[in-house]
Amino acid sequence: MKRATAKINRFPKPSVAKAKERAPLAEQAYREIKRRILDNEFSPGTTILEQELALLLRMSRTPVREAAVRLAEEGLVEVRPRHGMRVLSISAEDMLHIYEILAALESESAGLIAEAGLSSENIDALKQSVTDMDHALAADDLVSWAAADERFHGLLIDNCPNSRLRHIVYQFWDQAHRVRMMTLRLRPKPVTSNRDHRSLIKAIERREPDRAREVLRRHLLRSGKMLVELLQTHGFKAL
User: Fold this and answer.
1) 171 near 75, Cβ under 8 Å?
2) Helix axis angle, 92-116 relative to 163-182, nearest 10°?
3) Whole-Å CA distances, 134 to 145, 186, 198
4) What is the pTM of this model?
5) Are 50 and 84 in contact (CB under 8 A)?
6) Could you report the per-residue pLDDT of 14-66, keeping only the tens digit for each?
7) How far is the C-alpha of 233 from the C-alpha of 36, rounded, in Å?
8) CA 220 to chain centre
9) How far apart are CA 4 and CA 73, in angstroms?
10) To 5 degrees, how large is the angle CA 200–CA 202–CA 205?
């Protein structure tokens, strides 16, 4: 994957005041473009010129450019000089690699959380997410199930005491998001996932870091294998 590289700035740096003025717009651009990518409003392979994005978001090209570079660093887009931004697709091999990374890193997050312990409030929030997953499956509402599942993992990652690890794990979850949603109705009913989540909560409550790591590692490797098989079975070279 081609990654964006920062250009050497041969001009004087802007004043602190101007930098502060630009920062909120760059953040707004980043969040809005990322939302459209994750929601598949900007589908994989789509190329959008910088000027088109600026007009769409009703802002200047500078914050749009900064947002595109940031998204490129996260592996969601490719910045192409004079050709704008291209939304990257995810192949079956990409998904395999992404879930191998998540299995290693998010499981380590779970171990660190189990070592440090969680407040009763956070434990209750995790349990509520699993309850919501159960209710969604009972209603055959896979979209609500996926939302509760992502909320569970978000709560888990947010409580990891290693901030750098949190950042990396979120980056790879974002890359996998589109494929997870686009294959949602192709997968078997995810009853096993709910059981895995309960086992993980129990390991965290009991302060069993090795057990927490193993439960989540196996869960993610199994999920990744299932998604890769779905892509291959249905002939999706990339999404």
Assistant:
1) yes
2) 140
3) 8, 19, 11
4) 0.77
5) yes
6) 343 444 444 589 999 999 999 999 888 898 889 999 999 999 999 999 999 99
7) 27
8) 14
9) 7
10) 110
